[in-house]
Protein 1
Amino acid sequence: MNSETEQPDDQSGHQKRQQKLKAQVDARIAAATEDKGLLLVITGNGKGKSTAGFGIVSRATGHGQKAAVVQFIKGGWACGERNLLQQHGVPFAVMATGFTWETQNRDTDRAAAQQVWAEARQFLADPDIQLVLLDELTYMVAYDYLDLDEVLAVLKARPSQQHVVITGRGCHRALLELADTVSEVQNVKHAFDAGIRAQQGVDW
Ligand code: ATP
Ligand code: MG
């Protein structure tokens, strides 16, 4: 109930409910004592997956942590976050051909995926890197450009305090199961469906 609709008589009831809620939240916060490198997956059909992934990279970088980014799609495309974060020393590994839904050649796409995956593996083996963003990795698994078992093994073997963020639609169930935190971005509406093209600064 918000304060505008709340009647004076409700005040003590409200206070009691809030106190109870606070006690419950405090107890849960007190119980959560573990530190661990997390695997986060941001999936779903709505807009905001890569934006959220880059938001976490910015957050970590802002704390002086070392982060690295691997982009498994749209390598040839402009990317505002890349322009900014590279200036702050964040290394980027970008797929050479820029995999898109337009490409038809499985062999060159697969080779490009394997090449950038080799760079990703180096990040995922480096204990000095606290956060790795694997942007659009889900498609590499879905198209079988990367071997699922190998991806799972490398993720499991990474330094214990290293966080990893995976973005992309249609995330494989095995990755969702391995993840600590999974968010699904739902599409409610998107400007593109009204004929508006991708806007610089908002979409890329
Ligand atoms: P963003 O990079 O904006 O966070 P995303 O990572 O969630 O988006 P992708 O599937 O990677 O989404 O697609 C990236 C591009 O496609 C962006 O330009 C984005 O605005 C656009 N896009 C994302 N979701 C939709 C949608 N539901 N309909 C149309 N275009 C979309
Ligand atoms: Mg994306």
Protein 2
Amino acid sequence: MDDTQFEARIEAGESIEPKDWMPERYRKQLIRMMSQHAHSEVVGMLPEGNWITRAPSLRRKIGLLSKVQDEGGHGLYLYAATETLGVSRDELIEALLDGSAKYSAMFNYPTPSWADIGAIGWLIDGAAIVNQTMLTDCSYGPYKRAMIRICKEENAHQRQGYEIVTTLARGTETQRRMAQEAVDRWYWPALTLFGPHDADSKNSDELTRWGIKRKSNDELRQWFMNRVVPQAKAIGIEFPDPGLHYDETSGDWRHGPIDWDEFRRVLAGSGPCNRDRIEARRSAHEDGAWVREAAAAYEAKRRERAA
Ligand code: FAQ
């Protein structure tokens, strides 16, 4: 098998499986993107986990607990899928903890009120679904299958978030204000989830050629805008975007200019919670060392008995 034959398989819509031949660069790109995705799920548990003990009712607490647990599960599927590319879980976690691997920049923002939990579910999970629905058609089998399962759960998260924001928006004046302020905090980070504009996206050409990405960053961002603007209008919430307008010609809701300097600053480590997030992951990893040791000892014993 060579590059030309591999590209013919992609062209024919075949699924690439772990034992199949693949160009080294295809493998590297998948490890980069899938591990960043796995790290995002696991770090993404932190801003919301912060509210589990303070949810305003038992029903809300159960809903949030289940959502945060789902995100941990998504991290697990994605780490397992990434391992099929010949990299170990330890190496992946090490790269997160030493800062050489990225995770979604928006998880470096804080969640100061309960309404942030609604805004994250509605806007961040809402953006993630748009991105991940596209990935259910990705050329790498294990990633595609993980995405199909994850999308089902993300849909429930998005609905739960929108319901929280709707309840607050229809509540007292203080609750309505809480909802609006949380949306003000999460609207712009949600738009950056899709990555830089197409002209500045260095990986897109390669990922698209290999059928990993099926739509561009800007196409997905536009799809997201067309979904969320009518939802915001339905509950009387406004997006903090003076440039937001309806394009009569294309029938699209267009956003105003995104502050990419802010995005790069947070990505480089200067967001409000970067240090806390990595510190929380590092101490969770250290505290969990005995579990990994016990699991490895159990497995060694099992193999010894089976031999
Ligand atoms: N944050 O050339 P491109 C979730 C980096 S899951 C940080 O356009 P690409 C669920 C990018 O890695 C959220 N870094 O890159 C949840 C690249 O850096 P590198 C995660 C970002 O790969 C909800 C550089 O910029 N979803 O939220 C970001 O073609 C609630 C240049 O960019 C996924 O990861 C960003 N926002 O496109 C969990 C989906 N954007 O590595 C808990 C899979 C870009 O070259 C609570 N990933 N960068 O140094 C993807 O679809 C793509 O990788 C993109 C980036 C779209 C993220």
